[in-house]
Structure formats: structure tokens, C-alpha cells
Prior knowledge:
2 domains, about 40% helix, binds the ligand C[C@H]1O[C@H](OP(=O)(O)OP(=O)(O)OC[C@H]2O[C@@H](n3cnc4c(=O)[nH]c(N)nc43)[C@H](O)[C@@H]2O)[C@@H](O)[C@@H](O)C1=O, alpha/beta, Rossmann fold, NAD(P)-bd_dom_sf, 13 strands, single chain, lyase, two-stranded parallel ribbon, NAD(P)-bd_dom, NADP, seven-stranded parallel beta sheet, about 325 residues
Amino acid sequence: MKTALITGITGQDGSYLTELLISKGYSVHGIVRRSSTTVRARLDHLFHREDIYNKRLFLHYADLADTTTIRRIMLKCTPDELYHLAGQSHVGASFDIPETTCEFTAMGTLKLLEIIRDLEQKPKFLHISSSEIFGRPDQSPQNEMTPMRPVTPYGIAKAFATQMVTLYRESFGLFACNAICYNHESPLRGESFVTRKITRAAAAIARKHQESVSLGSLDGRRDWGFAAEYVDAMWRMLQHDHADDFVLATGTHHSVKDFLDASFKAVDLDWQDFVKQDPRYMRPSEGTRLVGDASKAERELGWKAETTLPKLAELMVEADLQRIDASETKPAF
Ligand SMILES: C[C@H]1O[C@H](OP(=O)(O)OP(=O)(O)OC[C@H]2O[C@@H](n3cnc4c(=O)[nH]c(N)nc43)[C@H](O)[C@@H]2O)[C@@H](O)[C@@H](O)C1=O
């Protein structure tokens, strides 16, 4: 049985990856930050499985800044594979909390690399990088050779982490890879990201729970794929015969307006009747022309993104409608 360690296990990607690895027979350890609430809704269904929780799925408390504890966890569970998904991942928020973003997203990654460098039994390492490293690129679509020109604190932190991963692979021989992920969404996406904010609003407005939704710029264009497919690519990267970096993307791009169109169409409404623009959600600077060329992943890993708009929006709206309907039929205690 292989053992995997996941940072950011309670996030969208961590949850899909845990499901995937459990289905492949792995023993999965996850690092979680200590907080006063123990609600981890995305993994709840696995915690209730007696054959899985504390048998093949284990949680450990640690902060990414706490290298002593992380080293201790690694020595204890001796992972074959380490998937590093944790970090401050909200681009808009990175303008408000740039230091925190750099501490976790940039330095947190370097700290993990330093721990692995000293271990005798080194796990294969996957870092989730981001299309934000390209910022405002000269070429479109971008691939693994495209120069980094980040324009947000988050993108800059990711560029630092990405280059450190490459450096540790090339200079210290670590099996360390960057998954350069474009936006990947799902019903498990956090509610402050634009896709989930929209699908949740479309469902709530359709069920008459909400009257409108406030958004920032509607002209931003993104390459939106389905998160469950992206974690499969991450796993494939660590099964590959050599460590390398891969762009993971659909190769299609759409505007926020296109995402609104698809989501509100799924509930037979016109988004223009419900959307307000709010300067609070505008960003001081934005990446542009971000669309990925994932042909290397297709060629070398046999991976291709399948789900794009409008299907992605439809499945997310459907899940949000089901959530509302389920909460309405639940008995009140
Ligand atoms: C690849 C990359 O993908 C994600 O970062 P993101 O692209 O910034 O994603 P988002 O959903 O926050 O914004 C998408 C677009 O939507 C616009 N937008 C309009 N109105 C709102 C709004 O109200 N909220 C938000 N969040 N965005 C809005 C916003 O200005 C931008 O143009 C992260 O996973 C990140 O970790 C990552 O690596």
C-alpha cells in the first residue's frame, strides 16, 4: 500500500485527491491547521466510513510555518508521495494580505523542500502551481516554456515557489514537480471564487432565497476546467518516469459574462436582471490572456481536460440547487 501526504487536504483539490488516492488503495495522511471548528464538510463522508477513517485516512495538525511539526509528521508517516496543495489561494485577497500570502504560498513551499532535502527516504513531491505565474504573458496559449510575468502578490508568491521546486529538482535531485494549474472549479469550490459565487447565486435566486449578486469585473477571461480531472493529472505526474512540470488546462477561455450566461441559463433566468457591480470586488491588477496549452500533459501523461463551459457551470448549479433543496427538507432540530 502506498502512502501519500497531502497539505491542504480539506480544500477542494485535497478532497478530490483524497477520494482518488483512497480508490487506488493508498493510505492517505493529511495536514490540517488547528482551529476551533472541526467541521470539514468536504471530507465528511469519508470520516463516517469505519473502514477508512483512522485506518487509511489520517489527519495531523500543523501549520505550514511549523517546520518542526511537519518534519515530525513526515518521519512518522514516511510518505511515498507528498502533494503540496495548501496556501493562501485567493488572488483578490492577496492584495489585502500580501505578507501572509508570501509566507504560506512562497515560504511554506520552500520550507517543505528543505525538509525533504534532509530526509533519507525522500517522497516524490508535487507542488500545485498556478497560471497566475504568467500574469500578462506575451504568448497565448501559455505552455511550460512561457516566461513568468506575474502581476499579483499571489502570482509572485507562486512564481517564487515554482522556481524553487525546479531548482531543488535540478540542483538537489529531488523528484519534484510543478502542476501549473489553470482555474479548476467544482461544486466543492470555495464560495468566494467567482464561479461558485455565481452558481450559488443562480441557484439561490431561482429558489427565491436571494435577490441579486454583487460582482467585480465581468470582462476577466479564464481557462476554467473541472477540479476532479485536475487531481488525476497530479497523480499521473508522480507516476511518470521522471519529475517534470506540466501545464494543466482546457485550452478554452471564457469571460465571467460567459460563466454567468451558462449558469443562469441552467435555471432559465437572465443574469442581467440580477447582477450588480461592486468596486469592492475589483482588483488593482489582473492577469490577462490566461489560457493554457496542456499538450505536453496529453502527450506524456495521457491526460486531457474533458469538462468545459457550459457543462461545468451546469453541474455546479445543479449541485447548488440540490444543496438548497436538501436543507429545506431537513427536519429542524
Ligand atoms: C489559477 C488561479 O485561479 C483562481 O484565481 P482567479 O483566477 O483569480 O479566480 P477567481 O474566481 O477569484 O476570479 C476569476 C475572475 O473573476 C473576476 N471576478 C469578478 N467578480 C468577482 C468576484 O466577485 N469575486 C471573485 N473572486 N472574482 C471575481 C476576477 O477579477 C477574475 O478576473 C484561484 O484558484 C487561484 O488560486 C489560482 O491559482
